[in-house]
Write a structure and sequence with these properties.
α2 packs parallel to α4, α2 packs across α11 and α5 runs parallel beside α6. α6 links the parallel β4 and β5. This protein is globular. It is an alpha/beta fold. The longest helix is centred in the last third of the chain and has 23 residues. About 5% of the residues have low confidence. Strands 1-2-3-4-5-8-10-11 form an eight-stranded parallel barrel, surrounded by ten helices. A three-stranded mixed sheet has the order 7-6-9, with no helix packed on it. It contains eleven helices and eleven strands.
Length: about 280
């Protein structure tokens, strides 16, 4: 199948009371693993790359890999720019064939975030590409951006932000963080419900790596329609390689390492798809 946009995927998730799993990929093996897991469970799926990832491999390289694998799959597959940090990068991603983009202006003040996001929306809508934005600050480290603490999203500001920008989905801060957690996170799950009551577009949960399954499920039940997973996929991939090398230190074939990583990522993604409830939702 050709690459899909995230627009209908997330609207279907919102209507159906589940979330689409969105998985950050770093190489060919992770691309193959994520799509294989989604196809096995007949789930729609989003693959994501961050600015540092595309700097490492280029937008065109990742687009070509994901499109090639998506064409062989019988499920909806979307390629999403995660945490786009500039209007220019978003424009380049759309030109390269990405089918969904995020502009992250959360490090700007409210009005500057609106101005940047609205400009991106105007470009993307003209190209038929949906836009995700972020309001509030998710803690931890994502690429080269680091936040010392969390500033949870104000529901009224979320309503105004969506109305003034015209975004298709909104990532909100509820106490999650990028990366793994040093201590047990305190999630403001009620805030999800409050934002959902005021905002019509699908909501997005960032920083899900390391969260308990029941926490993710409750956030989905309250209105999260897309859930991002990144760090735990990277860890699964690397740990599988370490175990292989510890068991067989004379291994020299990169395909052996890649195969071990693929299998570990595939199993993790299958688990997360089930937690999000998007299995058997492919159309």
């Amino acid at each position: 199948m050709a690459l899909d946009t995230s627009k209908q995927m997330l609207l279907d998730a919102q209507k159906g009371g589940y979330a689409v799993g969105a998985f950050n990929v770093e190489n060919m093996e992770m691309v193959k693993a994520v799509i294989a897991a989604a196809e096995e469970l007949q789930a729609p799926v989003m693959l994501q790359t961050t600015p540092s990832t595309v700097k490492y491999g280029t937008l065109e390289t990742y687009q070509a890999m994901v499109e090639a694998e998506a064409e062989k799959a019988g499920i909806p597959v979307c390629l999403h720019l995660d945490h786009g940090n500039s209007y220019e990068l978003v424009a380049q991603a759309i030109h390269a064939g990405y089918t969904s983009v995020m502009i992250d202006g959360s490090h700007e003040d409210f009005e500057q975030n609106i101005t940047l996001t609205k400009r991106v929306v105007e470009l993307s809508k003209a190209c038929g590409i949906p836009v995700e934005a972020e309001l509030g600050k998710v803690g931890g480290k994502e690429d080269d951006l680091e936040a010392d603490g969390d500033t949870n999203t104000d529901p009224e500001e979320a309503r105004e932000f969506v109305e003034r920008t015209g975004v298709d989905s909104l990532a909100i801060a509820i106490g999650t963080a990028h990366g793994f957690y040093a201590s047990t996170p305190v999630l403001d799950k009620d805030r999800v419900s409050k934002v959902r009551a005021l905002v019509s577009v699908p909501l997005v949960l960032h920083g899900a790596s390391g969260l308990k399954d029941e926490d993710i499920r409750e956030c989905v039940r309250r209105g999260m329609c897309k859930v991002n997973f990144a760090t735990e996929l990277r860890v699964a991939y690397i740990e599988a390689g370490k175990k292989l090398m510890a068991k067989n230190p004379d291994t020299f074939d990169p395909k052996k390492l890649g195969g071990a990583g693929m299998e570990a990522v595939k199993e993790l993604v299958k688990n997360r798809i089930l937690v999000c409830g998007c299995d058997r939702k492919a159309k």
